[in-house]
Amino acid sequence: MKRRSTEITGRKGTEKWVERTAARTMLRAVRFSDADFDKPLIALAVPYTNGTPCNDHLRALGDLVQQAIEAAGGKAIVFGTPVVSDGISMGSEAMKYSLVSREVIADSIELMTEGYRVDAVITLSGCDKTIPAALMPIARNNLVGLTLYGGSILPGEYRGQALNIVSAFEAIGAHCAGKIDADELHAIECRACPGAGSCAGMYTANTMASAIEAMGMSLPGAASNLAVDAHNALSADKQEDGVRAARAVIALLKAGISARAIMTRKAFENALTVAWALGGSTNAVLHLLALAHEAGNELTLADIEQITARVPLLGNFKPFGQYVMNDLHAIGGLPMVMKLLLDAGFLHGDCLTVTGKSLAENLADAPQRPPDQEIIFSLEQPYAPAGRHIRVLRGNLASEGCVLKISGKEMANFNGPARVFEREEEALAAILAGQIKAGDVVVIRYEGPRGGPGMREMLSPSSALMGAGLGKSVALVTDGRFSGGTHGIMIGHVAPEAQVGGLLALVQEGDRIEIDLDRGELNLEVPEDAIAARRATWQAPAPRYLRGVLAKYARLVSSASMGAVTS
């Protein structure tokens, strides 16, 4: 199965061969030999940067995969992509570029795979947006390929407690609330991230890596294999993942299996089931909607709502639980969890995967759930029953939908006065100054895909609420989104967003907002005539950016209810 024209391979006809002499000449300059022109050309996307631990090791992993591709009979074309670190950009204007980077990374990979007309592709990933972005162009153009997650970080440690990046954000709130001093804050900062790898809890990176493995577009076990060992060198498991990925892509090419043969509707149902059973990030909603769009599958918030209603929460993972990915790795990894779900009828075992085998065949020898541990709960006695992790709400404040993460907690209906902020920074300042009280509903608007633009994550204000001890008594409602590390009474992805005239734009200070879990609604308790009067005088704010990437994104991006896609 060749995507490249015969001009590249030089196999048919002297005339066509001559037409491509210049191209072959240039490739010889970058160490291609005569034999290489007869090999399948494999694109290798390596989103390396030393600007975040999530991707710091991907250069070494990329070198290993390149060697493995060539050992397996292919020839690699290696290139990089942008990487915006969520953890570093959080709470600033830089975060506006995070979700935008998903689109730019996906487009960058498409440019390279189509510009070189490669035969197949392997995409590496690390930080949050690089993971869906690594798969989007493969689905978009129905390429032969797979994606390989770089793996999660080992936890830090302080006074006998395991640390991660969210520990640092919550420590800021605790310090501002007078619960810890500056020395303890600094100690947590210095110890939270000890080396390379993505955030260790069931945050967005591990959620999406697990979902994509369940979808069949990455290798069995790769999502839960750790990035590095205690010496900060590539782990043996991750090295083996690199070799397996190279062999698998050559096998897919020979078998003629491309992405859309794998990325079926049932595969997306598997991905969502595993994400919610583990207690995954609300960002999975946004990214799986986007991936389904790229794969030509119809997937809606209503579909996601149906799946969330039947999947029990099994994972006891941070940010709401106790454990991180290396704890899961030690008891059998993601294959063990998927085997548990498959045997109970929660997964479609007949789905094709990048191994060329079905999901059920991949899991035939997966370990059983070990007894006497509280990392993965049993189906008979789950961490929380079905419907108690992610909820999709509607109502007059979110007619297109919004997403609430409960994470197994008992939560009653909530009703409180709105505290309205036009930007994340304003809300954070009010929280840190002690101006938010128990019972309030913090509203942060104009942070949606268009309004931000870029749909920033609200980890700073949500962590500040948790650190101040208000996580159970204050709700936060936003047309922005949340980090996978967020927990508390947090409602994001409110659509339509404020910038396009969603009702969120008309909320005033002190209005009552109701979160009704019985009816699955988020409502503004203001009479219709008052709403109509407000709407008559409302005008959309002028765009915050008139040129550059963010301006382009604001013009093109769809609603969060459709995945915030631009294609």
Written description of the protein model:
With 567 residues, this protein is of the alpha/beta class. It has two domains: 39-154 and 195-362, Response regulator (Rossmann fold, 3-Layer(aba) Sandwich); 394-562, IlvD/EDD C-terminal domain-like (Glucose Oxidase, domain 1, 3-Layer(bba) Sandwich). It is 38% helix and 12% strand. The protein has 22 helices and 14 strands. The protein is globular. The two termini are 27 Å apart. Mean pLDDT is 93; it is low at 5-18.
Topology (elements, then pairings):
Layout: H1 6-9, H2 14-19, H3 21-29, E1 41-45, H4 58-71, E2 75-79, H5 86-89, H6 96-115, E3 120-125, H7 130-140, E4 145-149, E5 156-158, E6 161-163, H8 165-176, H9 182-191, H10 204-215, H11 236-255, H12 259-262, H13 265-278, H14 283-294, H15 301-308, H16 325-330, H17 333-343, H18 359-362, E7 390-393, E8 401-405, E9 414-421, H19 424-432, E10 441-444, H20 459-467, E11 475-478, E12 489-495, E13 512-516, E14 521-524, H21 528-537, H22 548-556
Parallel strand pairs: 1-2, 1-3, 3-4, 9-10, 10-11, 11-12
Antiparallel strand pairs: 5-6, 7-8, 8-12, 9-13, 13-14
Helix pairs in contact: 4-11, 6-7, 7-14, 8-9, 8-20, 10-13, 13-14, 19-20
